[in-house]
Amino acid sequence: MPVFGDLEQAVMDVLWASPTAMSVRDVQGALAKERDLAYTTVMTVMDRLAKKGQLNRELDGRAWMYRPVYSWVEVVSSEVVAMLSTGTPDQARAVLRAVRERVG
Q1: Bridge partner residues of 56 (DSSP)
Q2: Rounded CA separation 37/30 (Å)
Q3: Cα 75 to the chain's mean position, in Å?
Q4: pLDDT tens for each residue of 27-76
Q5: Long-range contacts of residues 94-101, Cβ cutoff 8 Å, at least 24 apart
Q6: 98/104 Cα distance (integer angstroms)
Q7: What's the CATH architecture for 6-68?
């Protein structure tokens, strides 16, 4: 799983928070609360995420509707497993114990 750039992460966060597919305009509107982004900028980011296999898109009338391919949990857990696999099994278990202690 990829690590997302700043704007890609912002787009993914909006889409993960939505129970339904969203258009570029919907995502741009949600991001407008924190960022002043052109429609074309958001469209380009979402198109690239779709080409990278991170978003599914479906044509609904004249607008593409986007939804994440993977849930936030799937992406984060994949990243954690990839990081843990660089150490020994004992190190991985120690990290998991430390995480459990921190998050409860």
Answers
A1: 67
A2: 11
A3: 7
A4: 999 999 999 999 999 999 999 999 999 999 999 999 999 999 999 999 99
A5: none
A6: 10
A7: Orthogonal Bundle (1.10)
Question: What does DSSP assign to residue 22?
Answer: B
pTM: 0.84
What is the domain partition of the chain in residue ranges? 6-68, 72-103
| Long-range own/partner contacts, residues 31-35 (CB < 8 A, 24 or more apart) | 34/10, 35/10
CB-CB contact of 18 with 71 (8 Å): no
Asked if 30 and 12 touch (Cβ cutoff 8 Å), the reply is no
How would you class 13 by CB atoms within 10 Å of its CB: exposed for 0-12, middle for 13-18, buried for 19 or more?
A: middle
| CA of residue 2 relative to chain centroid, distance | 9
State how far Cα 64 lies from the chain centre.
Answer: 18
Structure tokens at 29: 């509107």
